[in-house]
Amino acid sequence: MAYKDLKRGAEYKKYYYQTHKEAYRERLLKWRKENQELYHEQNFKYYWQNRYKILTKSKRRREEHRELISQKKRKHYQKHKEELLKKMRLYRESHREKRSEYGRKYRKTPTGKEVGKRNQAKRRAAKYGTSIEARLTAAEWQEIKLVYGYRCVYCGEKKKLSQDHIIPLRKGGYHVKENVVPACKRCNSSKNQKDLQEFGRGIQVVLF
Ligand SMILES: [Zn+2]
Predict the structure, then answer these.
(1) How close is the Cα of 130 to the center of ligand 1, in Å?
(2) How far, in Å, is the centroid of ligand 1 from the Cα of 133?
(3) Which residues have a Cβ under 8 Å from the Cβ of 106 and sit 6 or more positions away?
(4) Residue 132 Cα to ligand 1 middle (Å)
(5) Kindly report the CA angle at 73 between 95 and 55, in degrees rounded to 5?
(6) What percent of the chain has pLDDT above 90?
(7) What are the tens digits of pLDDT across the range 3-54?
(8) CA of 152 to the centre of ligand 1 (A)
(9) Domains detected in the chain
């Protein structure tokens, strides 16, 4: 019997809530306004105790509605395009100094240098229509230099070496270890986009 009563009680509560929704909402909002700190505290406590559940749920929802979400985002962007672009521009302008300072520092680190080289190769590959991802790694570049005795493959001098592509990227060559040789700046630029064969100085190419 108690079960029945409980059930009926719950049903009644639900019914009452349904018919007094607005009043409930108003009371809740009023309470929140008057007890902001407590409300935030409770909220945070609830989040912290249930964060795993909450995060998995939101992750699942994001995955389920990926298309819808990106659609919404696109729509939002289209609708507020000018506003957003203006905001971004203002942000960039007000942070220019900091950004460039950060960039300068980052490019000097080993990772930054490597990323820069890779991006440059990617840009060049894209420019010449070779869609292949830049693949030469830092370790492979070190290996190549070691194999060639840290000398320029064209003049044989020990200078600061840059990466030269045997088959140029613009001719569909890939940025892979098989296609990269070390060259000094002068030779690299005097080679000036000619293939190794055309350059013709009887170079010994080490094959991997
Ligand atoms: Zn050279």
Answers:
(1) 27
(2) 27
(3) 112
(4) 28
(5) 90
(6) 15
(7) 567 788 888 888 888 888 889 899 989 998 899 888 888 888 888 888 888 8
(8) 5
(9) 135-199 (3.40.1800)
